Amino acid sequence: MAASKPVEAAVVAAAAPGSGSGVGGGGATAGPGTGGLPRWQLALAVGAPLLLGAGAMYLWSRQRRRREAGGGGDAGGLKRNSERKTPEGRASPALGSGHPEGPGAHLEMNSLDRAQAAKNKGNKYFKAGKYEQAIQCYTEAISLCPTEKNVDLSTFYQNRAAAFEQLQKWKEVAQDCTKAVELNPKYVKALFRRAKAHEKLDNKKECLEDVTAVCILEGFQNQQSMLLADKVLKLLGKEKAKEKYKNREPLMPSPQFIKSYFSSFTDDIISQPMLKGEKSDEDKDKEGEALEVKENSGYLKAKQYMEEENYDKIISECSKEIDAQGKYMAEALLLRATFYLLIGNANAAKPDLDKVISLKDANVKLRANALIKRGSMYMQQQQPLLSTQDFNMAADIDPQNADVYHHRGQLKILLDQVEEAVADFDECIRLRPESALAQAQKCFALYRQAYTGNNSSQIQAAMKGFEEVIKKFPKCAEGYALYAQALTDQQQFGKADEMYDKCIDLEPDNATTYVHKGLLQLQWKQDLDRGLELISKAIEIDNKCDFAYETMGTIEVQRGNMEKAIDMFNKAINLAKSEMEMAHLYSLCDAAHAQTEVAKKYGLKPPTL
């Protein structure tokens, strides 16, 4: 089963969600019914079921409706849809602010009453847009308020922070919100306002910690705080990934990954076995007969290393052919570019791909393959227009190339252009009727369209299509894998488990299948031990499977094992094949770290598995 394709689509043979797989692939797309939840939430929102569908692991939230960004509310929580601009009267009653008793009660009540009166006057100025006067009144309220009246005093600081916010005095906002939180540690409004101030001050780490606390206190129900968390996590992830990726050591993927990648092409000259006439005189056939001696060629030597799975030497041998401007220069450029992509060096791959594409006299199959790979690279870099242009150009110059339609169909899935995707899969099938993967992916595209549209009759038709595909192609692991994902969506867990077993029987060394099966155990039987056992097996099979480490990290977050989760995310980061995927993994890691800090500071922990 192909663990990765040039365009990482949800339809690709159970390609790892968020695995970075797909040498040119984009981020894993959410499956039907995801509600568009950001994947970082997996490292924060716990206690919700994990689902596997459309090639992505996500939180299931059928009843969650899309809301306009909003916020606001009282000291204990924010209203869900609209940010409250006006100051508040009372803080959360959680800490209590009962009437004092004893000899000094009358005097103390007078002080508190005067403080409340100053605050009320400040509120009037605030509503009138007179923020400087409001600040003066809130300052008076703070000075008058008895020090033991924590909740009232926290409200006054928070109100003054709101006025400072209107004047865009972010340092003062953060300082007053800090005072409010010190007095009332679970004061959501103050925490969120401080998070926004930290954002303006470019204090991303502090912003993340505050908004994480807010998300936990709100039970991940307020979209405004969720959006801020998503925003700051992405910014942190991009910053860290940019630096890390620039200085990373190239890392060759596992042999299984590389073979899976090349298996996704049928019209790729460079991945075809060497002909006898191409082999060197040192090679022998099975009978010991010497083969025809060929010229000294770096490209042919690289091809020989491919057959031997000695992948680390391929780039250098291709470079020899290119430097000598040898007979196979175009092939060497394409092969070198492909391995640059495999080790995650898109910057080095692009000039080689550009040159192959520009060689008008080169074999059209080489040029079309280079366009597919460059188009996939553009999709990974979130440049869909350039990606589409390359795929269309490939179809123009080599209209009989089934690979073009197969991989463009995956691109269309990522772009939610399902009808066009189905048309491309149909053309691939017409050109290559034995293409089991294209037929399985077509079924999945139709299923996804039906599921998203909640069309039960079309869903059943798509499921029947899967049955026909696996009956016609019983040795196609991809067909079973995609069918298993659709069955999981339909909560037919037992049958989905059987399909994953079929995948394992056909490809026992495919690590991603074990991860998917492990996730299924969590959803189906809540069998954490079995799920972790299967994911550990995936790592045993392929210790470079970033998908397995990411998934393990996510599960450890849900178990409350933050240190182990962070360790797993860091291992996945070191294996990421693109800067974009690395940024996503940093987001997960930062989310887990923020949750650890919030637990230390405020004792806030979501429910664990």
UniProtKB/TrEMBL annotation:
Taken from the UniProt entry, a GO cellular component term is:
mitochondrial outer membrane
Q: Does the keyword Ubl conjugation apply?
A: yes
Keyword set, alphabetical order: Acetylation, Isopeptide bond, Membrane, Methylation, Mitochondrion, Mitochondrion outer membrane, Phosphoprotein, Repeat, TPR repeat, Transmembrane, Transmembrane helix, Ubl conjugation
Report the GO molecular function annotations: mitochondrion targeting sequence binding; protein transmembrane transporter activity
Q: Where is this region: Disordered?
A: 67-107
Identify the SUPFAM superfamilies for this entry: TPR-like
At which residues are the TPR repeats?
Answer: 115-148, 368-401, 402-435, 477-510, 546-579
| InterPro entries the record matches | TPR-like_helical_dom_sf, TPR_rpt
Q: Subcellular localization, per the record?
A: Mitochondrion outer membrane
Topological category with respect to the lipid bilayer:
Single-pass membrane protein
Major subcellular location class = mitochondrion
Q: Name one GO biological process term.
A: protein import into mitochondrial matrix
* Keyword Phosphoprotein recorded: yes
Q: Which domain of life is it from?
A: Eukaryota
Q: Which PROSITE patterns match?
A: TPR (PS50005), TPR_REGION (PS50293)
Q: Please give the family membership noted in the entry.
A: Belongs to the Tom70 family.
Protein name (database record): Mitochondrial import receptor subunit TOM70
Q: Specify the species.
A: Rousettus aegyptiacus (Egyptian fruit bat)
